[in-house]
Structures are given as structure tokens and as C-alpha cells.
Amino acid sequence: MKILLVEDNQQVGGFLKKGLLETGHVVDWADNGRDGMALAIGETYDAIVLDRMLPGGIDGLSIVAALRASGNKVPVLILSALDEVDERIRGLKAGGDDYVVKPFSFGEVVARLEALARRSQDNHFETTLKVGDLCIDLLSRKVTRGGKAIVLKPREFKLLEYLMRHAEQVVTRTMLLENIWEYHFDPQTNVIDVHVSKLRQKIDTGFEPSLLRTIRNAGYMLTAGA
User: Fold this and answer.
1) CA dihedral 176, 180, 186, 187 (to 10 degrees)
2) Cis, peptide link before residue 209, omega less than 30° from 0
3) Residues near 138 by Cβ (< 8 Å), separated by ≥ 6?
4) What CATH number is attached to the domain comprising 45?
5) What does DSSP assign to residue 122?
6) Domain end point (choices 71, 93, 123)
7) Are both 134 and 95 inside the same structural domain?
8) Hey, which of 16, 74, 152, 180 would disulfide with 157, CB 3.0 to 4.6 Å?
9) pTM for the full predicted model
10) Using one digit for the tens of pLDDT, what is the confidence trace for 48-106?
11) How far apart are CA 191 and CA 155, in angstroms?
């Protein structure tokens, strides 16, 4: 899943982002209400993990309310240190789908996100990505091309999901380093080239046309175009 995490506590946010990435999700993290609102409104996510109290002049409930007012039904899991029943009711009435009180276990957060994903299937929740005859099932984590199963390692799956979410767009090395490997600098290694090469071999070898292309001096593109 592509998840937006809005959490101002650096320790909590870093812990959640690391754990969600390790479980195979794509994560954008905002540490204040203003940036969280911009991402929530401007981007498309499968789920949002949202802190109740945020700096930046915009709190979590304002973000939820803005989403619902715009007709956006993305599942929202609210995190809060406020555990009074009235506060939970406020969060749910504002448009939140579930509410977890801090401190929490990471396993509980993941379980609740998965439950929200299953619940949202009846509302056309995006559970598959397709580019040509290449398909990813985000819930079962199965990959097929032309009906043939393709076995990917966790990092390869994450890389492919990211490329598919940005299909027909040039994805730069910097984008991959930051979103797949969490590097905010160039490690001066060939780690991207190695993983892209392995992924290309698995999804393109024996199939036509080739979907994963190298864009000279720019990056990579996953495209179904001829």
C-alpha cells in the first residue's frame, strides 16, 4: 500500500516509517499539519496514519474533515495520546475510520491498517496495480505477467510497486534512493542498477514488449507503450 504518515514526533514517526517500509509499503512522511494537509489533498494514498495533535496550525481532525469534505474516502487511522472516550468519538465523527491510542504496538497499527484495507474493498479500494499485462495484487503481494506468476524478493516488490505507481513517468535515481532505500544522499554504489537489472530480468525476460526502460541520463520508466 501507499501510505501517508503524518506524525510530528520524530522518534515515533521514524519508528513507524521504518516498520511500514520493512513490511513492504511505500510511505510518505509529513511532520507537521500544513505539509500533511498538502500531501493528503494533493496526492493519492491507499491509507493515512494521522496524528491527532500536530504543529503547523492544522491539526489531524482538520485534515480528516478537509478530506471528507472533498469526497476523498481514503481510510484514515488516527493516532492520539488523548484516550478519553469523548476524544475518540470526536475523531471518528470527524471522518476517521479507526483510532489508536498512544503508546501503541506496531503490530496493532499494521493489523488495523490491513483491516481498513479489507473493509474498503467494497468502496473500490485500490488493491491491484496494472501496467500492460503486468499486475500486482497489493493485499496478497502476488505479481503476475500474462497470467504467469513472478516471484519477487521484498525489496524487488517495493521497487516494482513504486515504479508502477509512477507508470509512464521518469523515476530518477534520487527518487528511488529516498523512497526505496531511505538514502538522502548518493551512497556512490550500484545498488539501484543491480536491483533494476534483477527486476527487469524477472518481469521482462520471455515477455513482449519490454516494460522497464532505462532513460539515458534521467532514470527509469515503467511503460506499456510500444
Assistant:
1) -140
2) yes
3) 1, 46, 117, 126, 127, 128, 129, 161
4) 3.40.50.2300
5) G
6) 123
7) no
8) 152
9) 0.59
10) 999 988 988 899 999 999 998 888 888 999 888 776 777 777 777 778 888 888 888 88
11) 11
